Amino acid sequence: MAERRRVGYSVHREILDEGEVDEMAQKSDSKTSLSEKVKKSMSCSGPRLKNCLLGSVPVMSWLPRYSIRENALGDLISGISVGIMQLPQGMAYALLASVPPVFGLYSSFYPVLIYFIFGTSKHISLGTYAVMSVMIGGVTERLAPDSNFMIWDNLTNSSIVNISSRDAERVRVAAAVTFMSGLFQILLGLVQFGFVVTYLSEPLVRGYTTGAAIHVIVSQLKYTFGISPERYSGPFSLLYTVLEICYLIPATNIGTLVVSIVAILGLIFAKELNTYLSKKIPVPIPVELISIVIATVISWQVNLQEKYGVDVVGVIPSGLQPPVLPDASLFGQVIGDAFALSVVGYGIAISLGRIFALKYGYKVDSNQELIALGLSNTIGGFFQCFAISCSMSRTMVQESTGGKTQVAGALSAIVILFITLWIGTLFEDLPKAVLAAIIFVNLHGMMKQFMDIPALWRSNKVDMLIWVVTFILTLLFNPDLGLAAAIAFSMLTVIFRTQLPKYSILGQIPATDIYRPLEDYNQVKQVPGILIFRSSATIYFANAEMYQEALGEKSGIDITKILSAKKKLEAKRKRHEKKNAKKAAKKNTVDMEGEPEREEQNGIAVIEMDAEPDPSLPRAIVLDLSPVNFLDTVGVKALRSIQKDYGEIGIQVVLACCQTGVVDNLQTGGYFNDKVTKSCLFSTVHDAVLHCQSARTHRQNEEITATHL
Prior knowledge:
Region (Disordered): 572-600
Protein name: STAS domain-containing protein
Strand order of the largest sheet: 6-5-7-8-9-10
Pfam family, one: STAS
Number of helices: 28
Helix content: 55-70%
Largest sheet: 6 strands, mixed
Distance between the termini: 65 Å
GO molecular function, one term: secondary active sulfate transmembrane transporter activity
C-alpha cells in the first residue's frame, strides 16, 4: 500500500473563548416552545396527510410500484419454499406453546397477512418462533396446568387428564397473552418508542436466545423419551424439570425413543446434504416437509400409536376458526408475560430487519415495525393465534431463494391456507417425537452461539460478561424474568463503566495542536505550568465526587490539605492583627498614627499571604470536557467547586471542548457568575492552553514592572 501523502496546513486566528465563538458564529437563542411543538404536530395538510397514510399502511406505497417482471418469479419460489417450511415448524412450535399443532398453522397465516399490509421489512419471514413459543408455553402451562383438568377414568380406575378441556383453556390463555402483547407493541409504536430495542444489545440478545434454546430443548425431551414429567413454573423450574426427567428416564417409551433417534439422525444427514447441494440447486430441499410426510406414512402403516404407544398429533380440524374475543379475565394474570413477549418479539424482528435493510439499501421504520407486529398479534389473538416474531432460518431461505418483497410472505401464508383447508387432516398420525426432532435440529444454529464467548473474550470482556450472565439468568429465572434481569444487569454495566472511567493527564504532540494522554504516548510532552485533565465518561451524580478525587490524585495536589493550611494561616494572621491593634491602643505616644501602623505592618510582614506561589504547582488547569455529553446539577456543582477551590490557591481553571448542551447545562446550573463567565470556556484544548500561557506571561510582565517601580 502506497504511503499516504501528508498535506500541511496553517491557520492564523486569535484565541477564541466560547463567548467570542457564539458572537462570531451568531448563535441562535430561539427555541421552539412546547405549545408550538404541539401545534406543529397537530397541524394537518394534504401532503402531510398523504405521507402519514402511506407511512401507516406501507403496502399502499410499494405495491402499486411492484415490478412483476423483476420480482414476481423470485417471490413466487421464495413464498412456496417458506410456506412449506412453515408447515412443520408451525406444528412443532405449537407443541412448545403447549397448544394443539393446528394453532401453529393459524399463527403462520393470519399474522403474516397483517404484516404484509403494515410491515416495512422486505425480507424477514414472520410466523412462529421457538423462543416466543416456549415463553407462551410457560404461561399456558402455568395458568392451565394438567392438575386442573384431572377426571376419573372408570376403565382404568385412575385419574387422567381431560385433554380437550385442557387444550381449550390453554388456547384461551395463549390468545389472551398474544392479544395483550400486541396491544403493548401498538402502544409503544404510537408513542415512538421504537428506540427501546437499543437496550437489547447483540451480546444480550444472543445470550438470551441461547438460554431460551436450552429451555426449548428441555421442554421437548418429554416427547423424545415418551414420558410425562410434572410441570414446574417460576425461578429454577428448569433445574427441577431436568431432575424430574432424569428420574423418569427408566420409564422411557422405547418406540418413541427409536422414532426420535431415527428422525434426528435423518434430519441431520439431510440438512448436511442440503448444505452440500446449496450451490448446485436453486431451491433448498424441503427436508422437514419430506420428514413429516415419511413419518406420517410409516406411523399410519405400522400403527405406531396402538402397537408401541407412540404419541401422535391427533385430530386436526380442517378449515379456519371463527374470530373469538380474548378472555379479558386473564389479562391481569398475563400482563407481565405479555410485555416481555412484546419486547423480545420486536427486538428479534427489528434486529434481523435492519441487517437485511442495510444489505439491500432500504430503510426499516422501527416505530412502524412495532405497530405492524402489534397489529399482527392483536388481530391474531382474535383468531386464537399465539405470539409471533421472525425466524432466522426461514428468513435466510426467503432471501436465498430470491424473495425481494413482502409478496413472498403473503404467498407463504396462502400455502399455509391451502394446507390448513385441505391437507392438514392427513397429518393426524404424525408422531410428536418427529416434531420435537425438527425443533432440536433447527436449534443447532443457536447452539453455535456458544462460540461467541471466546470471541467476545478477545474483543470486549464486558460484552462477554453480559452474554454469560444473560445466559445464566435466562436459565435460572425462565425467559420472562430472565430478560428483565438481563436488561437490568446490562444497564448496571453501563453505570459501572461511567463510575470507573479512565482519567488522563494530556500532553502536547510537539509542533502540533494535538493533545494525547501522557501514559499512552512516548513523544507527548506536558505543557509547562499547565495541567490538562480529561475523563473518558460524562460527569453526573454517580461519579462527580470521583472526578474531583481523580483530579487531585493525577495532579498531585491535595486541595483539602492546602486549603486547610491556608485557613489556619489566615486565622493566625487575623489573631496577630488583633494583638497588634490592642498594643497600639495601649501605647501612649505623641505619634498616634505612625507607630501602630508600622508595627501592624511589621505584624503583617511576619505572616505573608501574598508570597510567591509554590513552583511545584501548575499555574492553570484545563479540564477537557470533550467526552461529556451532559451535566446534571451535581456535575455542575463539582466543576464549580473545582473552579473555586483551585482558584483560592492561585490556580486558574478553564474548561475546553464543551458541547452546546453542556454549555446550556452550565448556564442553567449556575456555574457562571460575575467573576466566572464564558471567557473561561474554550472550543479547543489548544485555545485554552494558549490562553493560559498568555495570561501567565501577562502576570509575569506585571510582576517585573511592579518590581522596577
